[in-house]
């Protein structure tokens, strides 16, 4: 596929079915098939993978790592490292889907992150992402893009349906403790854990509890993510040390109460 065709794919609107919007509104996540072509995933996946291994600083043996460190290699804001990665992160198609699912006029980028679960990589414990974000509104969403077909043995993302509405665990960081607490607390919610086909992606709300199993496949589980927020999101005073760090790193320490309008948080899609 020509580069021009890849760029056209990333900017072409995706018709989000009304039932997908309704499902997301109720359950806090949705999986969508055939969002990206195999050619686009192969081309941009290679660029992203090269950046992950170039920028990764986590080199200690698996047995010496914490539960969090065992879960994945985590490299953030690839869009600022490479122009081709930026093409992918700034995809209007992917951002438009986020806006449609959240039922907002437009979305800004919070940040991107690659999540590579190595062979023998451990579980990703139960957690809700927005614990880390000093953002006032729940209108946030992450697109989770596997860069290969992802069977259960690779540790695909799993969702506790409708848990975006529960207050339990919102003050707990990702850890063994969050896994134990939420294993007990989330029994009231249905667990959705299914493989991802190539080209299938998921979107999950910032307050939805989710986890991933260990990677026992022998191959790396390569995933790229982008976090979007309502373009009219407001910055709130950080409630914990992680939110303070995020405020400084991803929001350029913009004033509390303001919109996140710095160079780090461009509008990636708007219906108007």
TrEMBL record:
SUPFAM superfamilies recorded: Clavaminate synthase-like
InterPro entries for the chain: Phytyl_CoA_dOase-like
Cofactor field: Fe(2+)
Keywords recorded for this protein, A-Z: Dioxygenase, Oxidoreductase
GO terms of molecular function: 2-oxoglutarate-dependent dioxygenase activity; iron ion binding
Name this polypeptide is given: Ectoine hydroxylase-related dioxygenase (Phytanoyl-CoA dioxygenase family)
Organism: Runella defluvii
């Amino acid at each position: 596929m020509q580069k021009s065709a890849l760029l056209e794919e990333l900017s072409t609107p995706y018709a989000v079915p009304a039932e997908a919007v309704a499902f997301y509104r109720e359950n806090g996540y949705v999986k969508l098939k055939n969002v990206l072509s195999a050619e686009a995933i192969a081309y941009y996946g290679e660029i992203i993978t090269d950046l992950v291994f170039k920028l990764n600083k986590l080199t200690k043996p698996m047995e010496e790592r914490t539960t969090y460190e065992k879960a994945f290699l985590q490299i953030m804001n690839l869009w600022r490292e490479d122009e081709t990665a930026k093409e992918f992160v700034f995809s209007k198609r992917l951002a438009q889907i986020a806006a449609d699912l959240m039922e907002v006029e437009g979305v800004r980028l919070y940040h991107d992150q690659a999540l590579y679960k190595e062979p023998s990589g451990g579980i990703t414990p139960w957690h809700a992402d927005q614990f880390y974000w000093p953002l006032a509104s729940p209108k946030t969403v992450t697109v989770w893009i596997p860069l290969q077909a992802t069977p259960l043995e690779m540790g695909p993302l799993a969702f506790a349906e409708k848990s975006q509405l529960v207050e339990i665990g919102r003050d707990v960081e990702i850890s063994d403790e969050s896994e134990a607490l939420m294993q007990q607390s989330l029994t009231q919610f249905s667990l959705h854990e299914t493989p991802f086909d190539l080209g299938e992606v998921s979107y999950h709300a910032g307050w939805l509890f989710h986890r991933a199993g260990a990677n026992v496949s022998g191959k790396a589980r390569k995933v790229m993510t982008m976090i979007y927020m309502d373009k009219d999101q407001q910055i709130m005073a950080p409630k914990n040390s992680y939110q303070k760090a995020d405020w400084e790193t991803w929001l350029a320490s913009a004033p509390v109460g303001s919109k996140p309008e710095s160079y780090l948080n461009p509008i990636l899609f708007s219906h108007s």
